[in-house]
Q: What sequence folds into this?
């Protein structure tokens, strides 16, 4: 058995809580914050229930601007379209920015099997790639890695000074190392935060400038995203860009918000639009709001379970509240174990910028998997509670009172929770019905 | 059937509950405004790690840029269209007569916008752009940054290490 590194657990918990705190300060400075969340949720519900029209509109506008649009119904088609584009253009070196879709579809290992050098250029993703592991958070992929580990890694990979673990020094070493890769890459790829139907443009929000470097130098640019990235128009971007970075990292906006539509002079721009199970989510009456998700990572930062157990404790590649639900939709049997990594505190639901009903979905999914999951997941007492929702309500009430007491005594786990304050006024059921 | 047809068939077969498009006019009308948008914009640029100042009467752009960054080996100066008070963003269109990479590759980038071209927030910014397609456009707020190593903020990840904004009357 591996030993738990409690110092690291505490560090991660406190660091993510700081990010959450920054988000709170920025959100409170905007009087219309709740109206923004409401608008984002309704814009997404509109887009996702009008996907055929909006996707057609997007394709027509993007094509008119000079982009080439491809459609992939699943992960295999996504990999093959991108692999085909790269081999067809004789690409040897390929730079990409962070994209959860590429993780979902296993892009990098596939390209490597074709003999293409595929380089992650986001600093966190690059650290993870060089370590040979996978991201533990969707926005802060290397949040579980300590500076000394990065120092040792870069010493080996980039020849940095032995023992130097200064983040500024290491970041600038990676800048020099990757600059050379940008200048010599044959193709660059991004995901998308938004795809705008009214204009046919792909919007990418980043801080480092790696996506912008990677799309500004090579002759071939690819943007690949899921059908749920469609938004109706630029007017709606006003809502989303005000919410995204504030919730994700506690910044008023990302450093770069780039809107791509026409290819650069003398180069090609290819767009790959992917389903890979999203239409199935749309058909699911209990989970369709998952398609609202902006992939901001906010629900991870606020989750009292995620903050302490970290991303690797979950079996699905997206962790935290949203990953628990996405995993259930991807393969309920395989990923149902993640349902236990939730206290039903609903802090995620009350923070989510697009109002995904994360805790309700987890609660309902637990009911469905109850029979088969009972043995694997729950102690006898918990099983009884789960079998009778009214008991759960009662247990939660008692639990919240308990949390409050713990909080009052200064017990740490209670400190980071949003629910107890709310619970003093509303029961969980009331909270749920009010949503 | 093509993949596109298969996706569209699956989307139709999903028969989602239909939601109407929300009207954003009330939200936009009541959104955050500032008594002094220019002062708020300058605060926000500084908050994003950038430098900012008004051009003095009779002063030219290159010497003002030099004064902002006296130690820079090379400064790239590009015109922007407008600024956003709430977050310090400057909007830049497809660059004319130079490649897009100029926005990112130089160590020091100076953005020049008219001092009266400050909109309060991102709703106003996108209203200003309208729904007419453009080839390319970008909002930049401050220098390139990362916190991927232990959440320690570092400027100069891959793009410009320093960004300045000059406001022209
Ligand atoms: S579910 Fe909501 S909070 Fe979680 S990543 Fe998606 S948008 Fe962010």
A:
């Amino acid at each position: 058995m591996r030993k738990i590194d409690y110092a690291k657990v505490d560090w991660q918990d406190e660091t993510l809580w700081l990010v959450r705190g920054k988000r709170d300060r920025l959100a409170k400075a905007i009087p219309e914050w709740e109206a923004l969340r409401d608008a984002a949720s309704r814009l997404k519900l509109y887009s996702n229930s009008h996907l055929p029209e909006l996707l057609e509109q997007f394709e027509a506008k993007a094509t008119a601007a000079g982009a080439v649009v491809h459609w992939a119904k699943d992960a295999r088609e996504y990999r093959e379209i991108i692999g085909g584009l790269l081999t067809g253009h004789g690409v040897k070196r390929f730079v990409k920015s962070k994209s959860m879709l590429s993780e979902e579809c296993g892009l990098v290992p596939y390209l490597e099997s074709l003999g293409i050098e595929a380089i992650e250029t986001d600093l966190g993703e690059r650290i993870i790639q060089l370590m040979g592991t996978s991201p533990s958070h969707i926005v802060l992929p290397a949040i579980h890695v300590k500076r000394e580990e990065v120092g040792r890694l870069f010493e080996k990979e980039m020849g940095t000074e032995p023992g130097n673990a200064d983040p500024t020094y290491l970041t600038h070493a990676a800048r020099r190392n990757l600059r050379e890769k940008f200048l010599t890459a044959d193709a660059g790829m991004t995901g998308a935060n938004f795809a705008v139907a009214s204009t046919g443009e792909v919007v990418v929000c980043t801080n480092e400038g790696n996506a912008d470097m990677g799309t500004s130098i090579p002759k071939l640019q690819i943007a690949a995203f899921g059908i749920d990235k469609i938004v109706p128009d630029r007017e709606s971007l006003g809502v989303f860009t005000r919410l995204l970075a504030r919730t994700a990292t506690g910044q008023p906006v990302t450093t770069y918000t780039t809107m791509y539509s026409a290819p650069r002079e003398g180069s090609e721009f290819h767009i790959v639009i992917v389903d890979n199970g999203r239409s199935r989510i749309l058909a699911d009456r209990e989970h369709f709001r998952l398609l609202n998700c902006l992939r901001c990572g906010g629900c991870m930062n606020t989750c009292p379970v995620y903050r302490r157990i970290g991303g690797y404790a979950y079996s699905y590649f997206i962790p935290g509240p949203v990953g628990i639900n996405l995993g259930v939709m991807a393969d309920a049997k395989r990923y149902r174990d993640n349902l236990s990594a939730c206290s039903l505190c609903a802090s995620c639901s009350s923070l989510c910028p697009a109002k995904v009903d994360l805790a309700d979905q987890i609660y309902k999914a637990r009911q469905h998997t109850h029979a088969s999951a009972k043995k694997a997941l729950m102690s006898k007492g918990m099983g009884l509670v789960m079998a009778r929702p009214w008991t759960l309500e009662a247990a939660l009430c008692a639990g919240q009172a308990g949390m409050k007491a713990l909080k009052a005594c200064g017990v740490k786990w209670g400190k980071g929770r949003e629910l107890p304050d709310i619970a003093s006024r509303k029961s969980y059921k009331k909270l749920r019905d009010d949503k | 059937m093509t993949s596109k047809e298969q996706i569209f068939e699956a989307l139709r077969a999903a028969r989602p509950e239909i939601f109407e498009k929300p009207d954003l006019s009330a939200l936009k009308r009541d959104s955050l405004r500032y008594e002094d948008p220019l002062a708020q914009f300058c605060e926000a640029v500084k908050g994003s790690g950038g430098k900012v100042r008004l051009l003095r009467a009779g002063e030219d752009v290159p010497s003002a840029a030099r004064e902002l960054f006296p130690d820079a080996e090379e400064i790239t100066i590009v015109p922007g269209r407008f600024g956003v008070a709430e977050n310090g963003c400057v909007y830049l269109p497809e660059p004319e007569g130079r490649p897009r990479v100029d926005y990112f590759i130089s160590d020091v980038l100076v953005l020049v916008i008219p001092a009266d071209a400050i909109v309060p927030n991102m709703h106003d910014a996108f209203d200003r752009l309208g729904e007419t397609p453009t080839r390319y456009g970008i909002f930049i707020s401050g220098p390139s940054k990362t916190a991927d190593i232990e959440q320690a903020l570092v400027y100069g990840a891959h793009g410009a290490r320093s960004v300045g904004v000059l406001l022209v009357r």
User: Anything to note?
Assistant: DSSP finds 24 helices and ten strands in chain A. The longest strand of chain A covers residues 220-226.
